[in-house]
Write a structure and sequence with these properties.
The protein is 30% helix and 34% strand. It is α+β, with helices and mostly antiparallel strands. Strands 2-3-1-4 form a 4-stranded antiparallel beta sheet. Helix 1 packs antiparallel against helix 3. The longest helix has 13 residues.
């Protein structure tokens, strides 16, 4: 059964377009990893429809990765490509600005 890996990010206000572009490119590049079934990443939307209430609580971007199982997630998390992107992200996020949750699709 697929395992979903959701990560929310609060990027610093002073984060540059160049930094965000490198992070975007790096995260989308992880879609080519053997462990990844699907990957999507993008900025939080604040005007989805008329009357929409923004519920992002300050999180600016979201990542959704689907892998086969816990072993695949472990391999994904520890691979060099993922670690390189983490090194781009950590200096760009606010303190406490990363929230991750994993769940099985039952």
């Amino acid at each position: 059964m697929p395992l979903h890996h959701i990560v929310l990010f609060k990027f610093k206000a002073e984060c540059t377009a160049e930094q965000l572009g490198a992070i975007d490119e790096g995260l989308h590049g992880l879609a080519s990893l053997a462990q990844v079934t699907s990957l999507s990443y993008g900025p939080a939307e604040d005007n989805v429809y008329d009357g929409y209430t923004n519920r992002s609580q300050g999180f600016t971007h979201a990542l959704h990765v689907v892998v086969a199982d816990g072993e695949a997630l472990s391999a994904y998390n520890s691979c060099d490509e993922h670690q390189a992107v983490v090194k781009l992200i950590l200096p760009a996020v606010q303190e406490g600005g990363v929230l991750a949750v994993d769940y099985n699709d039952k």
